[in-house]
Specification:
By secondary structure, the protein is an alpha+beta fold. It is 47% helix and 14% strand. The protein has 3 helices and 2 strands; from the N terminus they run αββαα. The chain has a two-stranded antiparallel ribbon. Strand 1 and strand 2 form a beta hairpin. The protein is elongated and about 55 Å long.
């Protein structure tokens, strides 16, 4: 998922399932956080709704299973440092 529109589609699909109080999708970490009335009943329906949009779900039951967002893309961090260094060079 690469854009806010995609994240909105996924969260809207999740919210349309009965028993979902809230659904938030983070584009940066690629994690959807749900508040459910009955997780056992709602989880399969949410999975069907999201996969119908063409997205894949991996369940994370515990926060310790989630990859830290700062470690998502080391290549991006390296590219960002290159941009910062080049901008410093232009500023001098």
């Amino acid at each position: 998922m690469d854009c806010a529109h995609c994240a909105a589609k996924v969260s809207t699909a999740a919210r349309s399932v009965a028993g979902v109080r809230d659904a938030q999708v983070s584009i940066a970490s690629q994690i959807m956080t749900l508040q459910l009335d009955d997780p056992q009943a709602a989880a399969p329906e949410i999975e069907r709704a999201v996969t119908a949009l063409g997205y894949k779900l991996d369940r994370i039951e515990d926060e310790s299973e989630a990859a830290p967002s700062a470690h998502v893309a080391p290549a991006y961090r390296r590219a960002l440092w290159i941009v910062v260094i080049l901008n410093l060079g232009y500023g001098l």
